[in-house]
């Protein structure tokens, strides 16, 4: 990984992963350790939350495409090692919340993925990207579920 090329994004655009695609890696444990570390890293790196959430679905039975996706996230992080959260004195600390969802983005289970982000001033202080627990039969319902998730975090 030391000689790996830095990536501009943590995941390929429109990448769809499934559980039966690719070969089994020789050592599934290393994939699980990398994903565990990436999950911990999402505490301060909100931009990888979605990508890590996608690959973490394959912890029990990882395949080579899942391993490659985890390596891509590591290559993305490699290019941003010096970046972090920064709170500047005198900033206007107004709390703002944003939410979004994809409708039925999970092709296998047809569940939507929701995400929210709260900013205090210009700095993100809370974020989440999570697959919805129920199937939304319309994009409006998927957005409503996402807004509910955001409101619960706000309270």
UniProtKB/TrEMBL annotation:
Name of the molecule in the record: Mitochondrial protein
Organism of origin: Capsicum baccatum (Peruvian pepper)
Top-level taxonomy: Eukaryota, Viridiplantae, Streptophyta, Embryophyta, Tracheophyta
């Amino acid at each position: 990984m030391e000689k790996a090329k830095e990536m501009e994004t943590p995941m390929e655009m429109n990448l769809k992963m499934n559980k039966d695609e690719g070969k089994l890696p020789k050592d599934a444990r290393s994939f699980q350790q990398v994903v565990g570390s990436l999950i911990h890293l999402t505490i301060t790196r909100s931009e990888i939350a979605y990508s890590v959430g996608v690959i973490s679905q394959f912890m029990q039975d990882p395949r080579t495409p899942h391993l490659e996706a985890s390596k891509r996230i590591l290559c993305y992080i490699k290019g941003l090692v010096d970046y972090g959260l920064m709170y500047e004195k005198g900033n206007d600390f107004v709390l703002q919340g944003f939410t979004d969802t994809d409708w039925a983005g999970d092709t296998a289970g047809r569940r939507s993925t929701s995400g929210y982000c709260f900013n205090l001033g210009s700095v993100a202080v809370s974020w989440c990207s999570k697959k919805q627990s129920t199937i939304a039969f319309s994009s409006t319902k998927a957005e409503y579920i996402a807004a509910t998730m955001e409101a619960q975090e706000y309270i």
